[in-house]
Amino acid sequence: MKIAISAQGTNLASEVDTRFGRAKYFIVVDTETNEFNVHDNAQNVNALQGAGIQAAKNVADTGAQAVISGNVGPKAFATLNAAGIDMYVGMSGTVQDAVNAFKAGTLQKTQSANVGERWK
Hints:
Blueprint: E1 2-7, E2 25-30, E3 36-40, H1 42-45, H2 51-61, E4 66-68, H3 74-82, E5 86-88, H4 95-104
Helix pairs in contact: 2-3
């Protein structure tokens, strides 16, 4: 399964970015092989509006079936939900910590956005 994790850097030791739409990067990890790809989210980091929606579309295009982030806003939530992507929020630590928690089944799937619009 492919999972996308919002990240502040480009490797598994990077910290999870607390922002989804304005995360610096998304690291997409194949949980079966542990292979990963880094996707730059620079176009949305300083976007005036629509960062969450565009980031969600970009993540969906990677084939990810789940997202792990610190937070996800209502528009990103709606877009990811429409794409059938599960979301796990409240994550901190490293990307590797997030992968480990996902594999261990200790993350709880979110049923709604956990921050309002224009949260930074």
